[in-house]
Design goal:
This protein is mainly alpha-helical. It contains 6 helices and 2 strands; from the N terminus they run H-H-H-H-E-E-H-H. Helices cover 67% and strands 7% of the residues. Helix 1 packs across helix 6, helix 2 packs across helix 4 and helix 5 crosses helix 6.
Length: 123
Amino acid sequence: MLVEKDASEFLRSTFRSIWSLELLFLLADDATRCWSNPEMVAALRASELVVNQAVDNLNAAGLLVPVQGGCFRYGPHSMEVHTLVISARSLYAHSPDAVRRTIIRSQSNHLLKFADAFKFRKG
């Protein structure tokens, strides 16, 4: 159960969209392959904007390695993070709706906190 909890926290703190998660899994399937932007767009059947945002998110999280020529490959910054990716993938395989809800709720919470920062406080 601790592994599932760790994977859920990893999902909440790392992913802004399910597209990022799908892209990560695609790249992790062949960690030695360098993917160009058009290849990622075609493989995911996503828009260039969606893929660019996912790449930015994953790169900032230390899950990708940029390679000369503008392509990326899977490359988590530690073995611990790689283990979290494996756990997240397992959780997604068994409970895809729960993973989607986890990511969506996480983003909703961030938006609510941002909106609350602009509320007038009664003093």
